[in-house]
Design goal:
The protein is mainly beta. It contains no helices and three strands.
């Protein structure tokens, strides 16, 4: 997918999950670490709207395009 740089109009932060464990391997804290920031194009990819008897589900998936780093 070719995208012009002028189309990258959203500023995003890229995060990495970080888990700290104790000596026995138990997870103590699960946080995120910032890897970097980038300009991106964010496009809605798919949407699912379901209104059932038990629950109401609304999901939206996005496609994010950034330049190669």
């Amino acid at each position: 997918m070719q995208v012009s740089m002028s189309e990258l109009r959203h500023r995003i932060t890229i995060l990495r999950p970080v888990t700290d464990t104790d000596d026995e391997g138990n997870i103590l804290v699960q946080t995120t670490q910032e890897v970097g920031k980038a300009w991106a194009l964010v496009l809605p990819f798919a949407a699912k709207i379901s209104d059932g008897y038990a629950e109401k589900v609304q999901e939206v998936d996005y496609r994010i395009v950034i330049r190669y780093r």
